[in-house]
Structures are given as C-alpha cells and as structure tokens.
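Hi U.,

Before I forget, here's the chain from the pilot set. I'm dumping it here mostly so it's searchable later in email.
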Amino acid sequence: MTLPIRIVIGMLTGTATGFAARLFFAGSPGLAWFNDNIAYFLGQLFLRLIFMVVVPLVASSLVLGVVELGDVRKLGRIGMRSLLWTGLLSAISVGIGIGLVELVRPGEMVKAEVRDELRAKMIPDSKKVIENALGARRPVDAVLGLIPKNPLQAAVNALEGETLALMVFSLLVGIALTLVDPEKARPITELAEGVLAVSMKIIDFAMSLAPVAVAALLFSLVVRTGAELLASLAGYVAVVVLGLALQLFVVYSIVLTWRSRWRPAVFFRQTREALLTAFSTASSSATLPTTLRVSEENLGIPRQIGSFVLTVGAMANQNGTALFEGVTVLFLAQLFGVELTFGQQLAVVFMSILAGVGTAGVPGGSIPLIVIVLQTVGVPAEGIGTILGVDRLLDMCRTTLNVAGDLVIAALVASDEGEAS
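Structure:
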C-alpha cells in the first residue's frame, strides 16, 4: 500500500471518528482529555519533525540550486519567468474568487443572530489577531528586513516571519559561490549537499508517521469545530472551496496543456503525495521536502530548477492564499453591509496578490494580512473573528492549491528552459 493511499485512509479515518466522537461523547471530559493529549500529541509530533528541518532544508536547497545553475544570468531568467507566472496565476486566482463572491453573495446568506454569535465566540482570538496585524512593519522596513543583519537570527525566526530574509541570504551565498574559485567554494558546496541529504532523511522518518498523524489532526479539527459551524458559514466555505477547485483543476490544467509536456491527469497523479501532505499539514513550508522530492523523482524536473523555484515558491507563490484573502474580505464586507466601490475592489485584488506573496507558509499565516486589507477598505477588523472557526479547514484546502501552484510553475519553467525530462 503506497504512502498516498495510507494518508487518504488516515484522513477518512480521522474525519469519521471525529464526527462519531462528537455525536456520542460531545462535552465529555474524556473526549476533551483524549483530544488535548493524544490526538494533539500525535499531530504535533509529526509537524514538529518536519518544521525542525525546514530552515536547513531551505538554506541548503537554495544554495545548491543557484550553484548547480552555474550562471547568474540563467538564475535571473528563471527568477523572472517564475515571477511572471506567479503574478499571472495569482491574478487569475483572485479574479475567480471575487467573481464567485459577487455571484453567490455568501455574506448575505448569514443571519444577523448567527453573525453576532460567531463574533462573540471569537472575540478573544480576533483581538489577538488584530493586535498582531497592527504591529506590522512599515513597507520601507519590510523591504529592508529582506536583508538580515544577522543571518543566524533570521534562521532562528524563520518560521515566525523571517523566511524571506533567510532566502535572500541563501541566494546571495549561492551567487557568491558561483563567482569565486571553485576549489575554495567546494567545501561549502559539499557541506550544503550533506545538510540537504540529512534533512531529506529526517523527512523520511517523519513521513512514516504521516497516516497516523493526519488521522489525529483531522480528528482534532472535527472535534473542535463539528458540522454546526460549517453549516452556519456554508456559503462562504463553498465559495472558497469552489474557487480553489476551479484554479486547481481548470486553470492549472489549461496552462499545463498549453505550455508544458505534462498532461494534467498524469501531473496530478504524480504529485498526489505532495498535495495530500499539503492538505494534512496546512503548511507549504512543511510540505517543501516532499514537494522537492516529488518534483525531481516523479516529474523529472532538474534539481537546480526545482530547488530554486519550489523553495522560493513555498513563500512567494501562494495562489490559494491570494484567492482566500480576496474572498474573505468581500464576504465580510457583505456580512456587515459595507458596499465596496469598484476602486476598492480593485484595491482588494491588488493587495490580495501582494499578500499572497508575503504570507508565511505556516498554518494561519494569512490571517494578519487580511486584517490589514479589511482596515484599508473600511470593513470592521473584528469581523475576522467570524471566520476563525473554519480557517483551519480552509487553510488545508488553500495550502493544497499553493503547493500545486509551486509544482505547476516549476514544470512550466523547466519546459520553457527545455530541461524537462
């Protein structure tokens, strides 16, 4: 039985047992204890094993990707192609999401008493999110923050928002290694190769726990949320999931058929392990090791292209996040009766695309940026509490699209470079 099949079985088992536990043991101390101690432990053990090697993996794969390209001009060309595809696909993604919101208008489906109840339940969490968002840096400081004063500090804080700074440092190291004497660069290159190999082996250990961990994570999610919350926000959840599905199966299929050698059915079959890992972890950063392996072994994308495009893409190419943020802002505007002008909707599109690039690739990383967009267009920021209960489920869905988008762009770039095997 292959790993993807075992992960699917784990997903179905965790979901089914979660609903059964809520049906028969809702409110019991035993269920709360099991969820907080057993299910939580198994899920977090898996996630921590993966997150533990994200920093060395990102640094070593970017350095090696640049070194193996061997040409700064080729690096610039690949980077520009990746950026253009990211911008185009993100714009299409946000356009799909906003079009569906305007067509379905899910915000008008939620009754006023349900809206007030949801806000009341989530007030403590929304206050914390708003405070974090208001503490965001100015644009000038954010750009300067891409150049770390202390690379070690950037590595320590990578999963708390400084991943881009670590990436910039790693890219500069890789570029410098291509420009110095090969004999002097060889020890550092060999060190990076060793770090990458060890990181991938640790990931193999973690993935052996994936089926059980996925069952535990979904069990915990269902026990905490249940079907009642999903029912009250069914229109909103349906619009987000439908938009993500259209981008994944329609838009990506079109561009793959148009600009690559991969047939969509083959592409999705070969990448299913990475997509299932993305769904279960809700983190493109945690999925990166699997994405890199699937790209090279299953799709035949050269390592030097995959290492660069996929590692940068885990942070900078987040179509699903961009779509989610655009849908959420317009949904909350409808929910609170705020009519957005055409200009404000364009601002939402533009800011959602930018937010998709700057969002941390960890669970819940997009929520603070949504608060900033809400405040910009005059929608009550505390409304974010309305959707926090279903965010984890939608995070799993949008992360799947994010990772698929990374793999699609890597395939497109490899085809454009004539290096797809």
